[in-house]
Amino acid sequence: METNTQHPSQTVDIEILNKDNQVEELRQMFKVIISEINDLKHQKAEEEKRRLIPFKDVMVMLGIGKSTLYNMVSKEEIPFVRIDRTIKFDKEDIDKFIQEKKKEKFSFQINVGELKGKRYIKNK
Fold first, then answer.
1. Is the Cα torsion angle 17, 23, 29, 32 positive or negative in sign?
2. pTM above threshold 0.85
3. pLDDT for the residue numbered 45
4. Which residues have CB under 8 Å from 91's CB, separation 6+?
5. Are 45 and 52 a contacting pair, CB within 8 Å?
6. How far apart are CA 53 and CA 72, in angstroms?
7. Which of 3, 7, 50, 121 has the fewest beta carbons closer than 10 A?
8. What is the tens place of the pLDDT at every residue in 52-95?
């Protein structure tokens, strides 16, 4: 018959060590999780920075000059964001703006004919 050679205090010590190891493992897991969350927050902040683009970049994207873009902004013909005194543009909004402009087509038909000796344009 086997006898338990461990003293009761040794058993308690082992249980405490096991619990300490489990707690340490949990701490390490939480550190990893918190680190990953912080990385995601940083990535999102970077994406937001890239999302807002400066005035000059929009001029280049649209192939227009400074005064033309200022006029479009003042007439609110193009979506923009004003942060203090700085005008920025949301890249997604500018992409949508470009797509909408691509879709806008002249919706008239040109018929050249003679009407009492004059040429005319007939709208659809």
1. negative
2. no
3. 75
4. 50, 51, 52, 53
5. no
6. 16
7. 3
8. 999 999 999 999 999 999 999 999 999 999 988 899 999 999 99
How far, in Å, CA of 84 to CA of 71, rounded? 19
How far is the C-alpha of 117 from the C-alpha of 95, rounded, in Å?
A: 46
| Complete DSSP assignment for 40-102 | HHHHHHHHHHHHEEEHHHHHHHHT--HHHHHHHHHTT-S--EEETTEEEEEHHHHHHHHHHHH
pLDDT reported for residue 91: 92
Sign of CA dihedral 32, 38, 41, 47: negative
- Give the gyration radius of the chain's Cα atoms: 34
Q: Please check whether residue 97 is in contact with residue 79, taking contact to mean a CB–CB distance below 8 angstroms.
A: yes
pLDDT in tens, 92-114: 999 999 998 887 665 555 555 54
